[in-house]
Amino acid sequence: MASASPAAGAKASPRSLSGLLPFIRPYRARIALAVVFLVMAAVATLVFPVALRGLIDGGLTSGDKGMQLVALRSHFLELFAVAVALGLFSAARFYMVSWLGERVTADLRNAVYAHVLEQSPEFFETTQTGEVLSRLTTDTTLVQTVVGSQLSLGLRNTVMGLGALAMLVWTNPYVMTQVLLIIVLVVLPTMWFGRRVRRLSRASQDRVADSSAIAAEVLNAIPVVQSYAAESREAARFDGATENAFKTGVRRTRARAVLVAFIIIANAALLLWGLYQGTQAVLAGKISAGHLGETIVYVIILAGAVAVLGEVYGDLLRAAGATERLMELLESRSPVTSPERPVPLRAAQGGSAVAFEAVTFHYPSRPATAALKDFSLQVAPGETVALVGPSGAGKSTVFQLLLRFYDPGKGRVVLDGVSTREVALQDLRGRIALVPQDAVIFSSSAMENIRYGRPGASDAEVIAAAKAAFADDFISDLPAGYGTFLGERGVRLSGGQRQRIAIARAMLKNPPLLLLDEATSALDAESERMVQAALQSAMRDRTTLVIAHRLATVQQADRIVVLDHGRIVEQGTHESLVTANGMYARLAALQFMD
């Protein structure tokens, strides 16, 4: 199920947009240029009423017809020049701001994605993939809308509104005093409505994230869903999530509709009141017709600016909620990070040395149950050690701690004489290759899937690794050979074929420490024999830890370690453990009873 975000109930405010400053700051020069164009466009708009007043008072007055015609032409040319300037400056502002919106959004999306990739598995115990994808798409799109258009529109209308206000105060202070009172009556209710829109915007984004999380979960497990004929159930579950998102969106839209209606009506009242006062002044002979026209246009500009700012404020609130959710991701800190001054690992000769020293570990999601209890294990360079035991005994936890996906609560994990906490994560994981039970295949070619183990490897090295893993034959039989696209999660391959590609990937990496987690579990008997031979070759001159439930695969290990409830209960060779007649002997008897 989708998890609610930690601050789902928090109130976003325009101040939340300050989180975007680190992404905007690198483009200060472009921002400055955009502001120049913005101000020039606003000035051109504010000059238009002055030119209009000159046209009415100077070009339409009675007098010599020839002089009047010349004056009209001059005033119309002035108005056209103002329009040209407005068009050019507006186009330049639009381009600069749109570029900025695209660039900032791309940087933000990249930063969030890169940050999420660095999170430990603990992060994904509480945050689902679908929710992260929702933030990377829906939320960043909202941010792009604001940075790329609405913010600029808001600044432009703020400048125009303040400019129109200043011109009205200068040209007609009496009318302006009354207009200001109406503006206050418009702004206060707008802010009250805005708070409700803000809360509903955040809730709407969270509900969309819920439906995205459900979709991601189900689409990643589509074979299971279809095998249980659960399509209608999952469609109904998704329908319920989207219906919740729809209802929340309708409530948000209703609140914004009320806000828009109020702003339009209030601005109409503002405009009509200014027009009424102006006509009274003309009739009384206090101002000229041109002065009235100028005042009306400034009132229209002011009313339009207030209306647009109301709309922009609503969009800013939505983007503030989106920004807040994105900042939550960026502010999340993985408990597992590289040390500031990492200790370099010495060169591993014949494999890495591994040591677990009195390690006790609890998974964050299961704090009451220890996955490992006072666990101590020494593995010599080049040694092959098999970890066996019932499910939940702690075998996979050993691998998780070695890769430093988690840090132990007590004790320490040591690789080649250095605590894993003191080693840079890149160096630590660069020395380890993992072949998981569920082989991961990326949506790319067979060549690139194997090359993932060592990106700089040549085609010949990739093919050599595939041959060593007995994958060359079936890859060569694919329609385009090594260039064949394998489909999402390798859907075009069998389980055994996917496993052999994963083994080839690990062989290509050629690390001093190899971790095999049921690496042959998906292979048939013939393939298993081939891959076992390949693995035996791969294990030479390196340390290998093997997790296996099928004991036939670990009989040749140098040492077998038997775990139960997070503790080592037995260890030794296959023969010695069978003779000891303990847990391993019972497991072996069950499997080899035939």
Structural summary, described in words:
The structure is a single chain. The protein has 594 residues and is of the alpha/beta class. It has 18 helices and 10 strands. It has a 6-stranded mixed sheet, with helices on both faces. A 4-stranded antiparallel sheet has the order 2-1-4-5, covered by helices on one side. Helix 2 runs antiparallel to helix 9 and helix 6 (173-219) runs antiparallel to helix 8. It is elongated.
From the structure above, extract its key features.
18 helices; Rossmann fold; six-stranded mixed sheet; 594 residues; alpha/beta; ABC transporter transmembrane region fold; 2 domains
The major beta sheet can be summarized as: 6 strands, mixed
- Rg on CA atoms, Å: 35 Å
Q: H/E element string?
A: HHHHHHHHHEEEHEEHEHHHHEHEEEHH
CATH hierarchy, class of the largest domain: Mainly Alpha
CATH homology group of the largest domain = ABC transporter type 1, transmembrane domain
Shape from CA axes? elongated
Structural domain count: 2
Q: Enter the CATH topology name of the largest domain.
A: ABC transporter transmembrane region fold
Q: Runs with pLDDT <50, length 5+?
A: 1-11
Number of strands: 10
Number of helices: 18
- The fraction of residues assigned to DSSP E strands is 5-15%
CATH architecture of the largest domain: Up-down Bundle
Structural class: alpha/beta
- Major sheet strand order: 6-7-8-3-9-10
What is the arithmetic mean of pLDDT?
Answer: 78
Span between termini = 43 Å
